[in-house]
Amino acid sequence: MKKFIAVMMALVSIAGAWAQVGVKIVPEKKIFLSGEGQIMCLTITNNTGAVLKLKSEPYYSWLDIHVKKSAGQEELPQSRFALFPALEIPPGMSVSRKIDLRHFYDISSEGNYHVQAVVKMPNKVHMFASPEKMFSVRTGNPMWTQTAAITGSMKRCRFATCLITVKGVQKLYVQTSDPDTGVAYNAVCIGDWMGTFRPECVVDSKTTLHVLFPTTPILCAYACVDFRGKLVKLRYYKRHVGKPSLVFFPDGQTRVVGATEYDPTPKGEKLPDASVVPGM
């Protein structure tokens, strides 16, 4: 009898310890463009008083991410099983990881989505879920499109510049997609758009898109995005009188004329806040 009571007390103690694990998942932002990295920040807090060791096994992951199109609907099927790497959390500490939902879900259609994280304990009995968080996916409003052959390949790429309004600010994106299937390869935000003139867009011989656009009343931004949707260059220029423009030279170089290159980050010992950089 004493042995039974001791075992029960131990089990109660273990269950109480597991109950001190906190789970939270938060979208990096509220609105994503279709094809853009859908980054979620997962935070696990260990208040058990012991090291928490989370480890996956073949066909078994210690972490499940559930996504629903809207509240009350069935979960979306995974396009690929997510097997997360091992994680060790010291007692009294929190550990955060960024997770891109594109790796195991097809979330390309426009709409509102709900995401939830479930952490399974090493005893494979207890599990703890985060509160659900909502985010939205938008297809955007294309301002310009062009389909180009990918250099050195038989494939083609469709470039598009799109606008999404976030809290009253128009964000300019470059989206790359397969012109035959319509599936987006990627999407990247290149800055705020100040609608004084339409973006100037040119695709070069290396299948790289060059975009020049106004981002403040006196500044414009020059961005280069490759066919994979990766931002390879972003520079700012202070405008002169008139509208600046892009000029291509025979050697392949590109130059912005009618403006002077400008670094908008303030100088000083204190690190600048990202919010003071126009277009970010």
Record the SSE blueprint.
Layout: H1 2-18, E1 21-27, E2 31-33, E3 39-46, E4 52-54, E5 63-68, E6 87-89, E7 93-100, E8 111-120, E9 127-129, E10 133-138, E11 141-149, E12 156-166, E13 169-177, E14 184-192, E15 200-203, E16 208-214, E17 219-226, E18 231-239, E19 245-248, E20 254-257, E21 259-262
Parallel strand pairs: 2-10
Antiparallel strand pairs: 1-3, 3-7, 4-6, 5-8, 8-9, 8-10, 11-12, 12-13, 13-14, 15-16, 16-17, 17-18, 18-21, 19-20
Tell me the number of helical segments per DSSP (H or I, 4 or more residues long).
1
Q: What is the averaged pLDDT score?
A: 85
Strand content: over 45%
Biggest sheet features: 5 strands, mixed
Compact description:
The N and C termini lie far apart (67 Å).
Could you characterize the architecture of this molecule?
The chain has 280 residues and is mainly beta. Helix content is 6%, strand content 48%. The chain is built from one helix and 21 strands. The chain has one helix at 2-18; strands at 21-27, 31-33, 39-46, 52-54, 63-68, 87-89, 93-100, 111-120, 127-129, 133-138, 141-149, 156-166, 169-177, 184-192, 200-203, 208-214, 219-226, 231-239, 245-248, 254-257, 259-262. Strands 2, 5, 8, 9 and 10 form a five-stranded mixed sheet that branches. The longest helix is centred in the first third of the chain and has 17 residues, at 2-18.
